[in-house]
Known about the structure:
This protein is α/β, with parallel strands linked by helices. It folds into two domains: 3-14 and 84-215, 3-Layer(aba) Sandwich (Rossmann fold), CATH 3.40.50.1000; 16-78. 42% of the residues lie in helices and 13% in strands. The protein has helices at residues 16-27, 38-41, 45-55, 62-78, 90-99, 112-121, 144-153, 168-177, 208-215, and strands at 3-6, 13-14, 85-86, 103-107, 130-132, 161-165, 180-184, 200-202.
Amino acid sequence: MRSAIFDLDGTLADTSADLIAAANAGLGAELLHPARDQALAFRGGRAMLREGLARAGSHASDTEVERRLPAFLAHYEANIDRHTRLYPGVEGALDSLASAGWVLGVCTNKPAALAETLLGRLGLRDRFAALLGGDSLPVRKPDPRHLTDTIAALGGNPARAVLVGDSDTDRNAAKAAGVACVLVTFGPEGAAVEALGPEALLPDYALLPDLLDRLIR
């Protein structure tokens, strides 16, 4: 059995605008911009809050970041799919993989409940046999156990699995787990992800089924 594991934010969907709006709500000011801070958005709520506080000239201590995190999460949960959109071709690619016998999962650092909600709103949740979020285990990506436990939840084998992601976090998790990695080039990092040394690059979801078939036969 072959397993395809997907990151969520920046890989399956562009969630940056909703994440940045939530971070600004937590900061109480428009300190982050959707057009300029996409890459930052995919680093998570704490990273956005820390950067916003620094831009405001405030001390971005861990305590202050944690104090603002509930407001960020509340706003995000209430507006989770206002601007979020799937990347073109995602649904067709997932359907093609499933038809070819691939078992699909999600391994994301987004909290599991939020990931479940978002994938449900986007109409994708039933395509994935397993979903592990950033709070599903005591560890999360780039720790390889987050990825290998997702594969295990599918009944898969790391030697017959691929992680599709968009960042060094995904690349490092896959490398440490001994899992092939495909990085998308349509995220905020663009073609620069090639420098991370993935097994393959993905410029278009229409190419994914054939690409994965070549990687794991």
